Amino acid sequence: MSLKETVSNPYSKWLEATGPENDVIISSRVRLARNLMGYPFPHVLGHENADKVLYAVQSAVAQKSLQEAVGNLELSRMTELSSIERQILVEKHLISPDMLEQPEKRGVVLRDDEVISIMVNEEDHLRIQCLLPGLQLKECWDLANTVDDGLEQIIDYAFAKEQGYLTSCPTNIGTGLRASVMLHLPALVMTRQINAVLTTLSKLGLTVRGLYGEGTQATGNLFQVSNQVTLGLTEEEIIDNLITVALQLVTQERAARRALHKEQLHQIEDKVWRAYGLLKYARTMTSNETMTLLSDMRLGVDLGVITGIPPGIIMELIILSRPAFLSKVKGADLNPYQRDIFRATLIRERLNSLSNE
Amino acid sequence: MLCDRCQKRPAEVHFTQIINNSKKQMNLCSTCASELQAGSLGFAPQLNLHDFLAGLINHHFTGSSIQTNALPQMRCEKCGSTEAQVAKTGLFGCSECYSQIGERVRPLLKRIHGSSIHTGKVPKRTGGTALIAKEIRILKNQLQNAIKYEEFEEAASIRDRIKELEQKLQ
């Protein structure tokens, strides 16, 4: 699949609800921050040097041995993409919103299934990302590690014995590793246990964010939990810590779901079917309402209240109903009101196509 | 003083916010204050990580988080970034900054990470002595285990390997 096809398709490999613990854990991600020795960091990098970094990365990803190890990687400059296509890459979590500024300095490397992506000249020269469905942090780390080793064959990294990999922001030095899991925690929210859980996580040196990163709200009961500390621990220790915590959260969420299902069966069934009904028949739908209803519907799928709906459809519909994606499908810019109508139409069509299958 | 927001009722709540040396003050009546607080986070915008870090670095250089006059101007010889710039953005200009300006930030790293020594991955080709140091660390762990389980022959061979590597480092 080419990059042009990637942005036309709402489906990403990491949306498949096939990974381990997928009833609670939507996806796992590992990110490695790396910089090239001898160049200023991106926020003070001139155009000429930015170009040199892009070329260096382009030749590093083109190495035969790397491609043999991890598959076909290709660099695209941000300027080769339209502004809607760039926005879609953000909505699909393949690049960060910061990449939309100064596109002439930046580029993105993608494997065609979107599992591997590398941002070039974002906050650091390289941000190697691996994204997989369910709880697969170890697998993500192994893959990112292999890509990192491959790039290091050609690229001289900025590295110091004591401080490890040097990054533009001191919160990332050392391993440069940020690992995160995206969790769907509707029952912990409904039973009002979530605040206690979040407080505990912050005591364990973990950060919690909403679906679209720093500062975003946890709409749709989706939470991203990631490590805060990157220096002084090994990569394996960081990954193991996060896996342990993620499994704890899975246990707690499942217990809360069982309790809800047992004690408030009618309320839960009502909530789930109302959500399904609205998604299937409503004529306008805001983005926030969509997230809330999809969360309720997914809970219904996981509890077995609704059958015949693949769990992956929920994330697919979330991506599908983001503003840039809607514009792309429609082939025109939409105002917020038109978007709400078109969003409802697309969701309706997708859900009705499932019941006909 | 009237409330900044409704301009009708007297201001009773005085809210001061200092981010990155810039000071913002809001004077609100109790009704507006509770509405703003309940309504959104807009009242106290969420501090982004860089602003927060910039504040910490600034505090570290100057000993005060609200001092606004000139900062000591240590400058990175490689990229020309000054302490003031680093303190303002929370970002270093280049990898050399870590050895130039960074020396003074070392205690801060410890405060952020709880440690200031990297124990993780080392680049294979360019890691140099760091790679050897890492191998020694791993071997020392293995040595401890071998002693614990009374595998003395194994322990002796690990010890020899450590000695060999330590000589390389000298």
UniProtKB/TrEMBL annotation, chain B:
Pfam families: UVR. This is UvrB/UvrC protein. Gene3D superfamilies: UVR domain. One of its GO terms (biological process) is stress response to copper ion. It comes from the Bacteria. InterPro entries: UVR_dom, UVR_dom_sf, YacH. One of its GO terms (molecular function) is cobalt ion binding. Residues 133-168 form the UVR domain.
